[in-house]
Write a structure and sequence with these properties.
Number of helices: 6
Structural class: mainly alpha
Shape: elongated
């Protein structure tokens, strides 16, 4: 996982000014994972969802969510990977744009904000459906054999006058 993102994306779930289509239970799981279990949280724009397994697929381009980084830094509770990556030079908290957009101050605020609407699940479902259709189309394209080339017509390698002479003999 990389730590290159400096500011939250337009629809980051950690932004306090954006409604994100998640149910409260999922928000509680996320907050517990990053604050109590010391886990990382990947930016949803850098991960892929496997419809067959229902799991998120890891990618070498995966980035840690900037909104989560900012919230954890505000709480003064960087997770273990943040601390390790900082020591190794892969993460620099001073480069985070802390005031670019409003981000929750802590997990409790995030859960209690009321920004988690069940009615908004349709947006997530539609986005997921589009993503699945795109992934399916890509898989079909990658699995399909390349198109067959048309066979070249059987032309003689001899020019027309030379063929006429050869046939007359």
């Amino acid at each position: 996982m990389k730590f290159d993102l400096r500011r939250p994306c337009d629809n980051c779930p950690f932004r306090s000014d954006v409604k994100f289509p998640l149910e409260v239970e999922r928000v509680e799981e996320i907050v517990q994972a990053i604050t109590e279990k010391d886990l990382t949280f990947a930016c949803h724009k850098t991960t892929r969802f496997d419809p067959e397994t229902g799991e998120t697929v890891r990618s070498p381009k995966e980035q840690h969510c900037a909104g989560a980084l900012i919230m954890l830094e505000k709480m003064q509770r960087p997770n273990q990977m943040m601390r390790i990556s900082e020591r190794l030079g892969f993460y620099d908290r001073t480069k985070l744009e802390m005031n670019y957009v409003p981000v929750y101050e802590n997990g409790k605020d995030m859960i209690e904000s009321g920004a988690w609407d069940r009615g908004r699940m349709r947006v997530q479902t539609t986005t997921l459906q589009r993503s699945l259709e795109r992934d399916k189309a890509t898989a079909i394209k990658e699995a399909s054999p390349p198109p067959m080339r048309r066979a070249k017509s059987a032309k003689s390698r001899w020019p027309e006058p030379a063929r006429a002479i050869a046939q007359s003999k």
